[in-house]
Design a protein that fits this description.
binds iron/sulfur cluster; 11 helices; binds zinc ion; 2 domains; 8-stranded mixed beta sheet; alpha/beta
């Protein structure tokens, strides 16, 4: 179990958010197949976790809880999957948090978002503000199936999102920048299209730049010099355009930003670009990007132009350190 406090937005105001990551048996999809970029299974227990253990993890996490207004509860899988967290435990956790938190956020694959599952958790408790995040990654079924191996369709996402809306539950959509097998430009265009396609369904759009996690297909390619995580400039480009694509609140959390395994630029400008991305994610203000520039922007532009002429994604020779 891990927990920490961070900043987030609640109705336009920056507030403290408490993040809890419970260790469960893991994502059912990861246990039977798994997504090409996801190494969450490295943190999962991979065998059944007792109700007592899950309750004890939650109680431990609550010892450090200081009344943060938002609580984000993650499981490295699906909170609504009863094989990860049995329904009585889901209910107990949500009822406890609802006493103090103003907003509770969880994540789930669409197949667990059903009338029945949503009704069950809200049976005895009127949740104040509840949000479910779905890892759609892209609105393109071909990319999701072949490059990500996600195991569900855009239609499945739309159905789940509509159901959440009907039940007055907030929808958060995660999209992936730079899945394996796509060039930088293809992926940037894919994200732009996904932002437009998800606009009618989502309240919050979270851009996840791929980072190289252990024991994944992405790591296999990266180690063979066949994959480079996205440029921070691609993130900036997407965020800059995002307000004209969707009415949703748009944010980006760059895990491992600036490192060889995470989204990065040349190494000189990374810190200030990451800071601007963080600022935008709280303020939605495009001005934070205005003063940004670096010589490596040219290299990034070259990559966008030239990559389509090469056989796949160009690698990062400048920072390559096998
Ligand atoms: S990305 Fe989500 S659905 Fe895919 S394996 Fe990881 S936790 Fe499961
Ligand atoms: Zn630079």
């Amino acid at each position: 179990m891990r927990c920490w406090s961070e900043k987030d937005i609640l109705e336009g105001t920056v507030v403290d958010a408490y993040v809890i990551i419970l260790r469960t048996r893991g994502c059912a999809w990861a246990l039977s197949s798994g997504c090409t970029m996801c190494g969450y299974f490295n943190d999962s227990i991979l065998s059944d976790v007792s109700d007592e253990d899950l309750s004890a993890q939650f109680e431990n996490a609550m010892r450090n809880y200081k009344g943060e207004k938002i609580v984000k509860l993650f499981t490295s899988g699906s909170f609504l999957d009863p094989s990860e967290i049995p329904v009585p435990i889901q209910k107990k956790i949500l009822a406890t948090l609802n006493n103090t938190a103003e907003k509770i956020s969880v994540e789930s694959r669409p197949e667990y978002i059903t009338e029945k599952s949503l009704r069950a958790i809200q049976e005895n408790v009127q949740l104040k503000k509840f949000e479910v995040g779905i890892g759609l990654e892209t609105s393109n079924d071909l990319v999701r199936e072949k490059a990500i191996n996600k195991g569900f369709t855009f239609q499945d996402y739309k159905k789940a999102a509509a159901l959440l809306k009907k039940q007055k539950v907030g929808v958060k959509t995660y999209m992936l920048l730079k899945p394996p097998f796509l060039t930088e430009k293809e992926s940037l265009n894919d994200c732009i299209k996904t932002a437009k396609d998800t606009a009618p369904y989502t309240d919050l759009l979270s851009l996840n730049p791929t980072n190289v996690q252990h024991h994944t297909v992405v790591e296999y390619l990266w180690k063979r010099n066949q994959y480079r995580p996205p440029w921070l400039w691609s993130i900036v480009e997407f965020l800059r355009q995002s307000k004209s694509l969707t009415k949703a609140f748009v944010k980006c959390d760059v895990v491992g930003g600036g490192s060889n395994r995470g989204a990065h630029n040349c190494g000189i400008c990374d810190k200030k670009v990451l800071h601007a991305i963080e600022e935008f994610s709280l303020t939605q203000n495009n001005d934070v990007f205005r003063a940004l520039s670096c010589d490596c922007q040219e290299q990034w532009r070259d990559q966008l132009d030239l990559e389509s002429l090469s056989f796949g994604s160009l690698v990062d020779f400048a920072r390559w350190n096998p």
